[in-house]
Amino acid sequence: MNLDLGSLFGGGNPPLIGVDISTSSVRLVELSQAGKEGWRLERYAAEPLPRGAVVDGNIENMEQVVDTLRRVWKKSGTRAKLAALGMPPASVITKKIVLPAGMAEDQLEVQVESEASQYIPFALDEVSLDFDVIGPAPNSPDDIEVMLAASRREKVEDRVAIAEASGLKATVMDVESYAARAALDRILMQLPEGGAGQIVALFQIGAQVTHISVLLDGATIYEREQPFGGNSLTQEIVRSYGMAFDEAESRKKSGELPDNYTADILTPFLESAALEVTRAIQFFYTSTPYTRVDQLFLAGGCALIPGLLDIVAARSKISSTVISPFKGMQLGPGVREQALRAEAPAYLVACGLAMRRFG
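Structure tokens predicted for Type IV pilus assembly protein PilM (359 residues):
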């Protein structure tokens, strides 16, 4: 019944690599501890996935994903075989429940299963289920708060099978949005007073989907996904210049495109990206009691598209930054600082997964 991967919430033992399988690529991060409080980025690597290998978080072509993960593992130079993998938020049901305090572990499991059946829209024997005791329930000293997490068993097993076929062992399964939040929390701790009282919005702009999380004092107060991402810019390059998708994607990154690209293609994309961000923030205001955002962070593969940060900051009128999950970390001997700067925002989830080594 329960996940046999350690725990959806449990930490991994060293050495552990974070492996992020997204729609467009596989990314790997290995961290180590440097001193008492410090971290060191030992290795990181990415390889693009063939189109259609992963669609909406579902593994559609196992062989292609396994082949890509093997290449990433080899490219990174790591020897670690234990992996923390992420599940897309849309494929995991999470629910905070309140239960009586003082139960033994086996009683707690029975109670969690019984509660879970109320929230999960499919049979429990088709589900991988896990839970984490958060602590005493607010305003109720005799109760505890428990976070319940459940996913279709086949979706978890697909990722476990990919790790195994690549020569790795999945020991931790996390939710991608939780992993991103763990990496973000480390950055927020570097702000004055650890960012206390600040309402922070994180926009992870991927290939097809933008994931939005708004946080206050370490807790997520709002979360949603919007169908917008960098593929729309790539597809416009394909349409305008008659290139193959892969060539358009690589030229988008290198900037080797005709003179009219900026005015005719990039600028309209930036306008629509800024509109998506401002709409999402308005939606946050209208659907919650909150009326301000103090800091906006951009992450994901699209965060470094030239001009995006400036237009988002100008339209939203909110202090905006492109996030590097490795900010303040020491760098291992194989890490090139200049290359890292250009790629870091895409590694937020992989970094958060790698942090589970010490979680």
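The mean pLDDT is 90.
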